[in-house]
Amino acid sequence: MNILVCIKQVPGTNKVEVDPVTGVLNRNGVDSKMNPYDLYAIETALKLREENGGKVSVISMGPPQAQAVIYEAYSMGADEGALISDRRFGGADVLATSYTISQGIQKFGSFDLILCGKQTTDGDTAQVGPEISEWLGIPCVSNVRKIVEVNENAIVVEMDMPNDVEISRVQFPCLLTVEKDIYQPRLPSYVKKIDTKSWAVQMFSLNDFEDKDEKKYGLNGSPTQVQRIFPPESNNRRELWSESGDVLTDRLYEKVKELKFI
């Protein structure tokens, strides 16, 4: 089985500046890490390889320093990796991002199964994975919480739906987005880290893609734009009451009613 995992480097802190004009995150000088949800996708791929054989590849989109998450995936057990990196991809919304990644995947190779984390911590849209499947013309199942069965032509999975659990059988090739409780991610291996530090990472730019139309990438290819950016309001007001129990009960009731919680 040839498995591909889509991973992303995200800010390691919520103190990230945003360009007020473009709405793009300023990642320069900000500590970064692998998107936590992608760790579960990698673990799922490694488990499937252990049980069914094959190869696990990873692909990411970002600036050159995003190679760090590729090497982290190597230290977990991934076999090869690729990074999609080009300044012309900067500022992409979910539509342009998914199209860019789909172009990179087609350049990278042919895969039976593509795995994505449920969402990213810097966007929280949970849209990129399903949109990649649309661009590639393959079926997608989201919110996968368990792999039930794998055979030569299809995979059977459990989906964690709002009110129940659904079971679906999906033909290969397909794309799955996995929940964080599907498997417990393994820790990176120091031995693998040393052994793989000289491994290559394939680099793809717009010039490598079949579709080289710049209007479909980055800000140019993004139909949605950030309209307004503002920090969340913090309410640090507090009141200290020192009364008897009966008085405090009445005051608390009136306060809760005033705040329209009841």
Task: Compile the SSE list and pairings.
Blueprint: E1 2-7, E2 9-11, E3 32-34, H1 36-52, E4 55-61, H2 67-76, E5 80-84, H3 94-108, E6 113-117, H4 128-136, E7 140-150, E8 154-160, E9 165-171, E10 174-178, H5 190-196, E11 202-204, H6 245-258
Parallel strand pairs: 1-4, 1-6, 4-5, 5-11, 6-10, 7-10
Antiparallel strand pairs: 2-3, 7-8, 8-9
Describe this structure in words.
This protein is α/β, with parallel strands linked by helices and 262 residues long. The protein has helices spanning 36-52, 67-76, 94-108, 128-136, 190-196, 245-258, and strands at 2-7, 9-11, 32-34, 55-61, 80-84, 113-117, 140-150, 154-160, 165-171, 174-178, 202-204. The strands form 2 sheets. A 9-stranded mixed β-sheet has the order 9-8-7-10-6-1-4-5-11, with helices on both faces. A two-stranded antiparallel ribbon has the order 2-3. Helix 2 crosses helix 5 (190-196) and helix 3 crosses helix 4.
